[in-house]
Amino acid sequence: MELLKEENYYHIYNRGINSEVIFKDENNMNYFLKLVAKYLSPNVNILAYCLLNNHFHFAIEVTSETKEVNQAFSNLFNAYTKAYNKQNYRTGALLERPFKRKQIKNEDYLKQLILYIHKNPENHNIVNDFKTYEFSSFKSYVSENDALISQKKSYIIGLFDDSENFIITHTKKNSIELNMENDNSRPTRFEKPARSPMKDKFFNYIHQLQDTITSKLEEVDGKAKFQEDNWDRPEGGGGRTRVIENGNVFEKGGVNISGVHGKLPDSMQKYFGVEDADFFACGLSLVLHPTNPMVPTVHANWRYFEMYDKEGNIVDQWFGGGQDLTPYYLFEDDAKHFHQTCKTACDKHNPEFYPKYKSRCDDYFYNAHRNEGRGIGGLFFDYCKATDEMSMQNWYDFVTEVGDSFLEAYVPIVEKRKTLEYTKPQRDWQEIRRGRYVEFNLVHDKGTLFGLKTNGRIESILMSLPPHVQWVYDHQPEAGSEEEKLINVLQNPVDWV
Fold this sequence. Notes:
GO biological process, one term: protoporphyrinogen IX biosynthetic process
Number of helices: 15
Largest sheet: 7 strands, antiparallel
Distance between the termini: 53 Å
Order of helices and strands: EHEEHEHHHHHEEEHEEEHHEEEHHHHH
CATH class of the largest domain: Alpha Beta
Structural class: alpha+beta
CATH architecture of the largest domain: 3-Layer(aba) Sandwich
Helix content: 40-55%
Enzyme class: oxidoreductase
Shape: globular
Mean pLDDT: 87
Subunit structure: Homodimer.
Protein name: coproporphyrinogen oxidase
Pathway: Porphyrin-containing compound metabolism; protoporphyrin-IX biosynthesis; protoporphyrinogen-IX from coproporphyrinogen-III (O2 route): step 1/1
Low-confidence stretches: 179-195
Strand content: 15-25%
């Protein structure tokens, strides 16, 4: 656990154990802030804060010695837990331990963190307008009431140039990047990385989409919860991995987001035909492997990429992504539903998109060494760049439309099939087919190769691999069987809608 150190800036955040409520009403929140003033204010400069019913966020600068400030946080949480437990006739820990902390190492991250904290109530649908929320520091910045906000108020406003732009920037539908640079400099000594509105906007979108998808999948599973793992990439950026295992429905699955940046590796520079280029890439990637072989595996990915010249100017940018279904037993109604949902999302933007990207999906997710598809497809698109017909905003609208359609495409299938009975031979068949899934990901998949070549996090990259797999020598399905029916479709793609 990293100790808080004097003259350093931090993002402090935590939540109730098992995401339980920690603030039942306004009295709880007011009492917590009273304790913050008592214990924290003498030891830190509070730059921003927000309290929600089951978690909180603070941006701080440490102004006292390590031992004193760490003790101050311990006193704060112990005092509040004691009072809350007494009020609610409960015992034991209330907050997750240790509390989360991330060092803020550049002004750009600090600025984005201020926006993130203040807009948190709106992003979680607590209020329609974050500016009206009573338990955040936003109102202290736009009024004469400086409650809890330190003398650093003018410094924070200066990050946005002036008070007027502070409000304008908050009001814009901008996005929030929360990755940190791996550098030991103080915030004021950092150069700001290349930025673009589209990068910020999409990065914020995948954060919100990850929350939406994981919440729904936990509800569908009814037992297992996603375990979260935040990680940093030494060369720049990082990600938030969420993995679910050994549930009622999902044997293993992951819903991961990442945002990485820095110098484009030599191997990728050769691939793109450029020299001395920097890059930014972010995306959400998910794979779900259900236990029941009657429920299909699903994969989805939505991503954005930018490339910069030596001066930090954007020289190229594009979107990519898609979603595809890998059944072990073919239910034609499921295939039609999945593809119809994909088509509906595409048709809102261009009627030519579905047949075009469906065909590309069949071509891409294809094990050429087996002469068969990995699954029954869906959508696959890449290098979606601005044209006279499609601006980057148009592409953003399309990609997010597909992303928003994912749960509608997959969850009804899971609900329909998750309680069907199955046999040991059917489970064996599932594991044999999972072997084909592994082969594709390790031999052909560009995303896996990109992650490995850019020093991505191995655990996250290989999250897509199923936990139980078989390779049976020269296995052939029985003639006329349901297994053979699947193979015939994989070798001869079908137009489902």
